[in-house]
Structure formats: structure tokens, C-alpha cells
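Justification of computing resources. Each target in the renewal requires a structure prediction run like the one illustrated here; the chain below, 117 residues long, is used simply to show the kind of job we budget for.
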Amino acid sequence: MTTRTTSQVKVTETLTVCRLDELPQGATRLVEADDGRKIGVFHAADGELYAIEDRCSHDDGPLAEGDFDAAACTVECPRHGSLFDLRSGRPKTLPAYVPVETFEARVEDGDVKLEVD
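Resulting C-alpha cells:
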């Protein structure tokens, strides 16, 4: 008797977004992963890079197009005004109440890189 087991393999995609000098503090860049997901990459006033899915959890509208507060690390949904924390993906104001996905962003050899599961 042969027993077969299956396991899921998690594949991580590394995207090169741009050169760091092309994304100054206070700037945003929108990228698309191979699976079609759009991701907003934000360069905050503290020098950190944050990345979240470009989808408001309230109505699936574009999120990265909203007003970015680089000092507070937030982005405001341009449709209904929900404010999202870029560090956690959690909404800070209604009408959204479900977090959006966040991604690891880093600088490697002067390039902004993004890890997408």
C-alpha cells in the first residue's frame, strides 16, 4: 500500500520596483505582480518603504492613488475616505474595517525590491 501526501509549496516572487533614487521620500510607485495583483509602494518620511495591495477592502477600488501622508504612514482611499495604516494594512477609519495585504519591501544594491507571496 502506498500513501501519497501532498503539501502546498509557497512560492515567493521578488519584484524590482525601481532604483531607490527614483522613489524619493513622500513618493509612491504602483507595480503589478505576475499574478496581476497591483501593489502600491510608499517611501515614508522616516525613510522606510511600505507596500500594500492596491485594493480598498471596502469596495475593491484603487487605494494607492489616494492621498499619501508620508509622516503618518497612511494612505486615504480616494473613493470613500478610509484611511489605511501602511505598516499594518489596517484601516484607521470607516467605512473600511478589513485590513489589506502588506508586502515586504527592501533596498538591495540600490534597487527597491518587493517580496510577493
